[in-house]
Amino acid sequence: MKSTIAVCAALAMLMAGGAQANHCDADLADAELALGAATIAVEANALDAADALIEQSISVCEYEEDQLATAEPDSPMVDPDYVTVGQSMLINATQLASGN
Length: 100
What we know:
The protein is built from four helices and no strands. It has 100 residues and is mainly α. The termini are far apart.
């Protein structure tokens, strides 16, 4: 019985598609790296905005992971190219911290 549950859980994870749990991890790492590597040429308010976006995106990404766990197979969220709001926030934070 335990092996059947494990197999079903593994299949469900495989069928989830591109957007999955921890879907923001790579973007979060990029944003934090950009914020840490920001030069003095980047305006202070841009860095403050990037920091605020990073902080807020963490709770947004957690909420999205709950949505992804229950998403229907035909939901746009399971499309590998779908960009979630949390990911978008992190992409914007990276651009702000990079001076773009």
